[in-house]
Predict the structure.
Amino acid sequence: MIVILKKNAEPQQVELFTNWLHNMGLETHMSVGENHTIVGLVGDTSRVDIESILALDIVEMVRRIQEPYKNANRKFHEEDTVITLCSGAKIGGGHFLVMAGPCSVETEEQIISVAQSVKAAGAQALRGGAFKPRTSPYAFQGLHEEGIRLLLEAKKVTGLPIVTEIMDAQHLPLFEDIDVIQVGARNMQNFELLKQLGKLHKPVLLKRGLCNTLQELLMSAEYIMAGGNSQVILCERGIRTFETATRNTMDLSVIPVLHQLSHLPVVVDPSHATGRYELVPPMALGAAACGADGLMIEVHNDPEHALCDGPQSLRPEKFADMMEKVRAIRPYADRSFTTSQDAGSSL
């Protein structure tokens, strides 16, 4: 349930109102916009008398929300969430963030070289895998603690914030200095891990599972936000379908749909979606045109000898060329669809 307050509501009246709701055992989430304030009610709202609330002078409207996700719901929070990284770079609300780097950290020379290249091309964050979930137990699994150390060395050299994937809640102490913790597609519904990430005060990049619906993605975001961490970035990385021409199927329509359903930033990973380096730039441009808040791109200085996902990695010069085109198309991105009042009714 959400309660929309009148524009001229006095702070003292709002405080009395929220205290009354708290005494009923409900949690409240305030979202202050330009035209009005929204109070989101979380808990058992079946006991709430809508007529009594409407009778209050400060209340303009009361609406029940059918979707099971509350904190992530745009109806609760009309304004786009803007997340600021340690470097000052922002994502969401018109701010566009590009995260780029190798699928896996291999050597100090490799990660620093790639970090310098992607920064020069305009990336604002360095992505790189220290822990790598692989389909085969015989494939390269990452450097683990050493990989994180090397990522932090690259950060010292370039100043780029670090984005890397966590596999297990037991590894959280290793991620203390990591700027954005990534939850991979295979862990999207690892609810115990999501609960632990909800206790943190740092951004979490949540990837959509290979076979998961958007509602399931948003419910996973809800797990993190219910724990108190509102800094969640949604990531579309393609889903598994019957098509075999690409590694996964990239559905760009999820970008406007997610923006209608949620206030959280949405980024796209065309590298994992397509699995082919030559398809990454056109899908990245499409994502930018569709209103994505950012991109996650795999870049490697020697893709032919990469220990992980070389075929989908761009060389630094190809990444720089792609970034020029992304910057050119960004001013034409249309985000007017986020104002839809009927968003989410089918989910």
The longest helix spans residues 108-121. The two ends are 16 Å apart (CA to CA).
